[in-house]
Amino acid sequence: MKIQIINGPNLNLLGVREKSIYGNTSFESYLEELRKRYANITINYYQSNVEGEIINKLHEIGFEYDGIVINAGAYTHTSIAIADAIAAINTPVIEVHISNVHKREEFRHTSMLAASCRGVIAGFGMDSYRLAVEYLIAG
Prior knowledge:
This protein has about 140 residues and is α/β, with parallel strands linked by helices. It has five helices and five strands, in the order E-H-H-E-H-E-H-E-E-H. It has a single domain, classed as Dehydroquinase, class II (Rossmann fold). A five-stranded parallel beta sheet has the order 2-1-3-4-5, sandwiched between helices. Helix 3 packs parallel to helix 4. About 30% of the residues are buried. The model has no long low-confidence stretch (mean pLDDT about 95). InterPro entries: DHquinase_II, DHquinase_II_CS, DHquinase_II_sf. Pathway: Metabolic intermediate biosynthesis; chorismate biosynthesis; chorismate from D-erythrose 4-phosphate and phosphoenolpyruvate: step 3/7.
């Protein structure tokens, strides 16, 4: 089984930025734990601050992977293009958020991606990624 995690803008700063919202752990540290926990699964990781690069990655893997976990960051609330890319591929996509976006600013309450995704997981910190992986494993 192959799962791709895609993180969008500013998520390369996890562990450094807004620790009260996103915590102290870098994504790379968390990814290492996730890969150890699911050693029998290939978990690839991609991060970009550029909308088009995220779309290209979805197109590249969207017909050959078993699942995609995406945290599109702020693009979640603005990108019809990423939503269209998700709708165009066969691989199931789970949208995740580290914070509970519904407890934050009003503009974060709307996801342009959710309707194109299999489901949405939000508010469980980094564990949101694990929950998405568990869903994909269960099929």
